[in-house]
Amino acid sequence: MRVDVVWLAALALSLPGLSQCDPLFALSAPNLLRVGSKENVFVEAQEYTGGNFNVEIMVKNFPAKNQQMFSKTVTLSASNKFQFLQEIL
């Protein structure tokens, strides 16, 4: 058995399962953003009971990541159920 496989298995077993993450922060976005078309980015905090907090959504060029093409800060709160859907153009 290769050593790198053993290390990978040990690392995977030592990480907490998703069910143990409380709260769970999630971001859902297209794998590829197309220039000139509308795309949506969804952010949420699942099972979060704290106060309001800001989330910064940033889109940069790829692969260099040296130009910021879009940026917006949104507030997740109890009134929006700690969820936000942002349209990116």
From TrEMBL:
Keyword hit for Signal: yes
Record keywords, A-Z: Signal
Residue stretches making up the Complement C3/4/5 macroglobulin domain: 23-88
First and last residue of the signal peptide: 1-21
Top-rank taxon: Eukaryota
Protein name: Complement C3/4/5 macroglobulin domain-containing protein
Source species: Aldrovandia affinis
